[in-house]
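Box 3.1 A note on notation
Throughout this textbook, protein chains are presented in two layers. The first layer is the amino acid sequence; the second is a token string describing backbone geometry. Keep the layers aligned when reading.
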Amino acid sequence: MKERQKLTNILIIEDDEDIREGVRILLEGEQYQVQEAENGRKGLQLLTKDTDLVILDIMMPGMSGFKTCEEIRKISYVPVLFLTAKSQESDKLLGLMAGGDDYLAKPFSYAELLGRVKALLRRYQFYKGKEEPKKMEQDSFIDLAGIRINESFNEVYVRGEAVELSELEYQILLLLMRHPRKIFSAQNLYESVWNEPYFYNCSSTVMVHIRRLRVKIEEDAQNPRHIVTVWGKGYRFGTYEE
């Protein structure tokens, strides 16, 4: 008997029942398996290793979306799409700093929501997958300045210690290490890693992910030696040999 394909699991954490219902109907129409929670605490209880995406409202009573995302990041790197009535750039940055991957301001069209959902799932499943990767005949490694990437299994080691990176953080680091000393502008990085058209405010998104990456791989994130800023131009990987 042919094994039934596993459904993609999406968790909606939103206090507005009408929005939850509308999003659930949309996603179930695309054959996604959907769970719902009306607040952050219940959402955290429903989150499992099989959750593929979290759609998270920011303005909720009790535990806010920002706080909920911070708690999610303590146990999972599942992609998080923020929904919020606020559209200011500062709120977007707060969401990204809390660990979110994307941001959609209300009111939004279902077509736009579905596009964001599919993009996040595509990147996450390409990076992580839900199956054990097949062993290659010979693993592919990049070793530079105390950082080692095993490209066969998307593993990163810093000074001999395994480091857990989000999918976007991993892709940024991989791109920079594949081309040491090459300067990548914010637009270069965004279009290469996010695979989406670049707009002016996307530079803030890149900046936040660079900051989070530095916290994880640098000995001193305030004085980075690996992910180096070239003022007025962009970012490059430093090799210590300059």
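The radius of gyration is 19 Å. Confidence is low (pLDDT under 50) at residues 129-137.
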